[in-house]
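Example: MFS transporter.
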Amino acid sequence: MSTEIRTTDEALAGEAGTEAGVLRPAAGVTARRALLAHPAVLLVGIVLASLNMRVALASVAPLVGEISDAFGLSSTASSLVTSVPVLFLGAGALVAPWLGRRFGAERMLFAALLLLGVGILARVLPSVYALYGGGILVGTAIALLNVLMPGLIKRDFPDRAAAMTSVYTGALIAGATVAAAASVPLEEALGGGWEASLGFWSLLAGIAALAWLPQVLVAKGRTGHEVRAVPAGGARPVSVWRSPLAWQVTLFMGGQSLWSYVLIAWMPTIFTDHGMSRSTAGVIFAFNTLTQIVGAFAVPLLAGRMRSQRPLIVLVTTLVAAGYAGLLVAPAEGAWLWAALLGVGQGGALGLALTLIVLRSGDAVTASRLSGMAQTVGYLLAAAGPLAAGALHQATGSWTLPISLVLGVCAASLAVGLLAARNRTV
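Written out as structure tokens, the predicted fold is:
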């Protein structure tokens, strides 16, 4: 036991010198301290990884019409192009905490970025099976990134967790903004149709993987002799799956994910169905994504300064509900206003959901487990959104019923969010 660091490096690790419940050998702690002495290296890795978290999803929405025409897909089948990755955001999140404990967060983040690049390239192959199969790889890769990042931030930045959540959430949405805005121009510039436009984003995943290599090299010093950490007092850790508070955080994550992925899948189509040109709809969709940065940066910072985040829950859900109501009554006439309201609300809700995972967790171990639970259940719920919206639109020939149901989701999210925002921990 002489090679293990138990107490002196607790601040470094976030809680009891652990990574997802594992004590580090002395060599690993030394390597981690050396890396954190140059936080820019770690910060660049986090930002570049975060930029990839929504690029592969946001880049598809402006091109769904062309993809559908290329493969002769119905509205319901078209919705699977965006629903399949979201479904595997949930399925991948189920195993991500175990993979992080087994192989280390750094290695799994690196592997996720490589898998993401492969999935992006698979989607552009001339086969509908490759289109959906690539979506499975993309969703699984993003799930690993989504789940492991909060625990890593809680571990390495325990005193700045809310601020770092703001940084990585903002980078996540910035990547989505660029992808949404550039999809159609890239298609024209590369001259290769929608395939070249989608495939381009594999380069960003490759760059991020290279930037994450220093983390992987440091992680080599933490393998081979780890042992399970025992919580203070010898008590066994409480299962997050049995915690009402964990379920409240999880359901808020699911609600905000559902309303966001419905927009990712169908916002441009809603506008074009009401007479707007495809290029204008794409620009407004990109504007919606851009305005999310405002909420994504500001809300986590505010949340970290509050004992209770209830006012922020009310704010973000009200903004989203107002934007959806606008899409219901005057979608084309007030498109820019609705896009702005939705954008600030979406970004704020995502940032708040991720921050609640960190704030409601007492340590890095719980943060990792709660992140896995919230994103497993949350994204499985969210996956139903685009598919159900597409099916209802096809059945009714209108967007009235799908949007009305999303407004119901907003009301439910407000209720569980107010419970999740109370000042307590799992």
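The two ends are 30 Å apart (CA to CA).
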